[in-house]
DNA sequence: CTAGGGTTAG
C-alpha cells in the first residue's frame, strides 16, 4: 500500500502515556489513546490514490478535509491541526472542528482534546473553554490542556480555577496536571498555593517525578527561595537536562553563580548532555562572575556539541566577551555570525553600556557609550526594529552621557513605536531625564506611566533626592509604601540621602532602622556614606551622633577599602574633627591598600560631539580662550566675595601644602568654560565629571551661574548638581572634598 | 497534555 501523504501523517509518533508510574488514585482513565492508534488503516485511500506520494501542502490538505463528506480517523486531522498551531490559524481550526462535529467524529475524546489544545495554543481560550464544556466526555488530559492554554495566555488564576473545577468533577490529576498547576503558581509568585500543591505531592509520594520536581524547583526559584529549589531538584529521581538547567539558572537568578557553575560540572560528570538552554544559562553565570576563562571553555564545549552557529548560544558568549572587556573577540564573533537577531544587536548595545559602567576611566567610558550609540544607529539603518530592550539600554547610555537631545529623540521614537508604555522603558526615561538634569520631565514621565514597578518608584525618589527635593522624595517614598510596593536597598539610599540633604538626622536614623528591622536589608557602603553626610552636616553638636558618624565611617572603610573617594571623605571628616591620629591611620591604610590617585576627567556634550577635559588641560593653554574666560570669571567672582580655598589632594602628601596657594583648574571648570564659549545663550550647560566635585569648584561654579545667568548641571560620581542663580540643588552638602 | 534559556531600568 502506498504511504499516506506526509503532510497528513507527518512523522508524529504520539507517545502513549508517561512515566507516571506512581499511584495517584484512579488514574486508570489515562487509557485514552485507544483511538489515537496509528496502525489502523485509514479511510483516506482516495486521497492517496489521487496524490500518490506527493506531499500536499497545508492548503490542499485543508481543502481535502473540507470536501470530505464523511469523517476521517484522528490521525488524519492531527498533523493538519499541528500545522494550524504553527500558523496560529484559528479559522482553519474552526473549519476542521466544524468538520469533525458534522461528520460525527466528536466522540473521539483524544481528538477533541487535541482540538482543545490547538485552541489553547492559538490563544483562543473562549473557544477552548466552550469546546470542553460541550464535550460529552472529558478526561484529565482535556482538563490539563485547558489549564495549559490559560497559562500560555497568561491567565494563571483561571488555570488554577479550572484545576479546582477538575477536582470537583471527580477527576484526579496526573504528574503533568500538577506540573501545569505549579507553573500557574510560579506565574502568580504564589508560594502559598504552591506549598498546598506540594503538600498534595508529598502525600501521594510523587516528589521524585521529573515533571513535578522540575516544576517545583522552578516555582521556588522564581519565588526567591533557592534552598527549596535545590531541595526539590535533589529529590527529583530522573534528572533530565531540564532539571539540571532549571537548577543552574535558579542559582543564577538567586545570586549564587558559583553554585550554578558547580552544578554544571556535576551535570557533565553525571553524563547529561547540555543543550542550548543550558549553555546560555551557564554563559550568563559566567557574565555575572566575569569568568571569561570558564566561559571560553564552555564555548569550546558548545562548539564540540554542534552549537557553533546556534544564535542564542553565540549571542550569550558574545555578550560575555563584551562584559569582560574583550571587545575585539566580541566584534569578531559579531562579524562572523551567519545570521543575527535583534537580540544580537541588543547584546552589543547593552554590552557597550556595561563597558561604559565598568570602565576604569571616564574617557574609555565615554567612548564605549558613543560606540553603543553608533551601534544603535546601525540597527536603525538595518531592517530590524528596536524593541524595549534596545530602548532601555540606549536610554541608559544617554543618561550616562548626559545626552539630553538624543534622549529626547529616543523618547519620541518610543512614542511612535508604542514602547513608551513599557514599564522598563518608562523607568529608563525617568532616569534619563533625571540624569540629564531635568526633574520636571522626569516627573512628567513618571506620572504618565500606567504601571510602576519598585524600580520606577525608586528612580523617581532618587530623582527628587538628587535634585534636592527632599520633601517630595520622602512623600513619594510613603506613597510607594502605601501602594504596597516593597522598597529595596537602593530605595533607601535615595531616602537616606534625602534626609541627609535636608538635615533630617532623626528621620534619617529612623529610616535606617526601618530598613534594617522592618525590611531586613543589610546596610551597604552608600547607606553609611549617607549617615556620614548627616554627621558632617550636624558637626559636633551632639556627642552620641558624633560617635554614630565615626561608626559609620569605620563601616564605610571596611566595606570600601579600595575606593579613593571614601578615603577623601574620611580624611576630611577626621581633619574637621581634629582627630589627627585617625588621619594618619587612614593615610597608612591607603598606602597599604595601594589606593591610586583620583582621575579627574570631565566631559561636555555639545550637539553630537563630546569634548573631554582633564585638570589644567593642554587643550586649554594659558592665554587661550578658555583660560581667558576663566581668568575673567575668577576676577568677577572675587569682586563679589569669592575666595579660592584649597582642597585636599589625595595621595601626594608632599604636594599637600602647596594646594592652598594654588588655584586648581579642575576639569569641570574647563568643561563649563568651554560650554559657555561654544553653546548658545540660555541653553543649560551639562557636564559629567568622573569624581566628586571639590568645595572650591562647587562655590566657584555657583557664582558662575550668577555671573553668566546660565543653568549649569554637573553630574559627578556621587550626585547631581544643578546650579541655578547661585544656588545648588545639592544643598552644598554634596561636596565634601 | 507538561517543564528550561540569552538581551532589561535604580
UniProtKB/TrEMBL annotation:
Gene Ontology MF terms: RNA binding; zinc ion binding
PANTHER family (alphabetical): PENTATRICOPEPTIDE REPEAT-CONTAINING PROTEIN, TETRATRICOPEPTIDE REPEAT-LIKE SUPERFAMILY PROTEIN ISOFORM 1
Stored InterPro entries: DYW_dom, E_motif, PPR_At4g14850-like_plant, PPR_rpt, TPR-like_helical_dom_sf
Family of the protein in this entry: Belongs to the PPR family. PCMP-H subfamily.
Residue stretches of each PPR repeat: 139-173, 240-274, 453-487, 563-597
Domain of life: Eukaryota
Pfam families: DYW_deaminase, E_motif, PPR, PPR_2
GO biological process, one term: RNA modification
Keywords noted in UniProt: Repeat
Organism name: Heracleum sosnowskyi
Annotated protein name in UniProt: Pentatricopeptide repeat-containing protein
Span of domain DYW: 641-733
Amino acid at each position: 500500500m502506498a504511504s499516506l501523504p506526509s503532510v497528513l501523517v507527518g512523522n508524529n509518533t504520539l507517545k502513549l502515556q508517561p512515566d507516571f508510574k506512581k499511584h495517584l488514585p484512579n488514574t486508570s482513565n489515562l487509557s485514552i489513546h485507544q483511538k489515537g492508534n496509528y496502525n489502523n488503516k485509514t479511510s483516506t485511500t482516495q486521497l492517496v490514490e489521487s496524490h500518490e506520494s506527493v506531499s500536499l501542502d497545508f492548503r490542499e490538505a485543508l481543502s481535502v478535509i473540507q470536501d470530505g463528506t464523511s469523517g476521517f480517523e484522528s490521525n488524519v486531522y492531527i498533523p493538519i491541526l499541528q500545522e494550524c498551531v504553527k500558523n496560529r490559524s484559528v479559522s482553519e481550526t474552526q473549519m476542521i472542528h466544524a468538520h469533525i462535529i458534522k461528520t460525527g467524529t466528536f466522540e473521539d475524546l483524544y481528538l477533541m482534546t487535541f482540538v482543545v489544545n490547538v485552541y489553547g495554543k492559538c490563544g483562543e481560550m473562549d473557544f477552548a473553554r466552550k469546546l470542553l464544556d460541550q464535550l460529552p466526555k472529558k478526561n484529565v488530559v482535556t482538563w490539563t490542556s485547558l489549564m495549559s492554554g490559560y497559562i500560555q495566555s497568561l491567565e494563571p488564576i483561571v488555570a488554577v480555577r479550572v484545576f479546582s473545577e477538575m477536582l470537583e468533577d471527580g477527576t484526579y490529576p496526573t504528574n503533568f496536571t500538577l506540573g501545569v498547576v505549579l507553573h500557574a503558581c510560579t506565574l502568580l509568585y504564589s508560594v502559598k498555593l504552591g506549598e498546598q500543591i506540594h503538600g498534595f505531592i508529598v502525600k501521594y509520594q510523587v516528589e521524585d517525578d521529573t515533571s513535578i520536581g522540575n516544576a517545583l524547583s522552578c516555582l521556588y526559584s522564581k519565588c526567591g527561595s533557592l534552598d527549596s529549589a535545590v531541595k526539590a531538584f535533589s529529590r527529583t529521581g530522573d534528572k533530565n537536562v531540564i532539571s539540571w538547567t532549571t537548577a543552574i539558572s535558579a542559582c543564577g537568578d538567586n545570586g549564587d553563580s558559583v553554585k550554578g557553575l558547580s552544578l554544571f560540572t556535576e551535570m557533565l560528570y553525571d553524563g547529561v548532555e547540555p543543550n542550548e538552554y543550558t549553555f546560555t544559562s551557564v554563559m550568563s553565570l559566567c557574565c555575572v562572575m566575569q569568568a571569561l576563562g570558564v566561559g571560553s571553555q564552555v564555548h569550546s564545549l558548545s562548539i564540540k556539541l554542534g552549537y557553533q552557529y546556534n544564535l542564542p548560544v553565540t549571542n550569550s558568549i558574545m555578550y560575555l566577551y563584551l562584559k569582560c572587556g574583550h571587545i575585539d573577540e566580541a566584534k569578531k564573533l559579531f562579524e562572523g555570525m551567519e545570521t543575527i537577531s535583534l537580540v544580537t544587536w541588543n547584546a552589543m548595545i547593552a554590552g557597550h553600556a556595561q563597558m561604559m559602567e565598568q570602565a576604569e576611566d571616564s574617557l574609555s567610558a565615554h567612548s564605549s557609550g558613543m560606540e553603543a550609540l553608533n551601534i544603535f544607529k546601525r540597527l536603525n539603518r538595518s531592517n530590524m526594529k528596536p524593541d524595549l530592550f534596545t530602548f532601555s539600554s540606549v536610554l541608559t547610555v544617554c543618561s550616562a552621557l548626559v545626552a539630553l537631545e538624543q534622549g529626547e529623540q529616543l523618547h519620541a521614537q518610543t512614542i511612535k513605536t508604542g514602547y513608551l508604555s513599557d514599564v522598563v522603558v518608562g523607568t529608563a526615561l525617568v532616569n534619563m531625564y533625571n540624569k540629564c538634569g531635568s526633574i520636571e520631565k522626569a516627573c512628567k514621565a513618571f506620572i504618565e506611566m500606567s504601571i510602576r514597578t519598585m524600580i520606577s518608584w525608586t528612580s523617581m525618589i532618587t530623582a527628587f533626592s538628587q535634585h534636592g527635593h527632599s520633601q517630595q522624595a520622602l512623600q513619594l517614598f510613603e506613597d510607594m509604601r502605601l501602594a504596597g510596593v516593597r522598597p529595596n536597598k537602593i530605595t533607601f539610599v535615595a531616602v537616606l540621602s534625602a534626609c541627609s540633604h535636608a538635615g533630617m538626622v532623626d528621620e534619617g536614623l529612623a529610616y535606617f532602622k526601618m530598613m534594617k528591622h522592618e525590611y531586613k536589608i543589610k546596610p551597604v557602603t552608600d547607606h553609611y556614606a549617607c549617615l556620614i553626610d548627616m554627621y558632617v552636616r550636624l558637626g559636633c553638636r551632639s556627642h552620641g551622633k558624633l560617635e554614630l558618624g565615626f561608626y559609620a565611617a569605620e563601616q564605610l572603610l571596611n566595606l570600601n577599602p579600595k575606593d579613593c573617594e571614601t578615603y577623601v571623605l574620611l580624611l576630611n571628616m577626621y581633619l574637621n574633627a581634629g582627630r589627627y591620629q585617625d588621619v594618619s591611620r587612614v593615610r597608612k591604610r591607603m598606602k597599604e591598600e595601594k589606593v591610586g590617585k583620583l582621575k579627574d576627567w570631565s566631559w561636555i556634550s555639545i550637539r553630537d560631539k563630546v569634548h573631554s577635559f582633564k585638570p589644567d588641560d593642554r587643550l586649554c593653554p594659558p592665554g587661550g580662550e578658555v583660560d581667558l574666560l576663566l581668568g575673567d570669571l575668577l576676577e568677577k567672582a572675587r569682586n563679589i566675595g569669592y575666595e579660592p580655598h584649597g582642597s585636599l589632594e589625595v595621595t601626594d602628601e608632599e604636594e599637600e601644602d602647596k594646594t592652598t596657594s594654588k588655584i586648581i583648574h579642575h576639569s569641570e571648570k574647563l568643561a563649563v568654560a568651554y560650554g559657555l564659549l561654544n553653546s548658545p545663550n540660555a541653553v543649560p550647560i551639562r557636564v559629567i565629571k568622573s569624581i566628586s566635585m571639590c568645595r572650591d569648584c562647587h562655590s566657584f561654579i555657583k557664582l558662575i551661574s550668577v555671573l553668566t545667568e546660565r543653568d549649569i548641571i554637573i553630574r559627578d560620581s556621587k550626585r547631581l548638581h544643578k546650579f541655578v542663580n547661585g544656588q545648588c540643588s545639592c544643598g552644598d552638602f554634596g561636596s565634601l572634598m
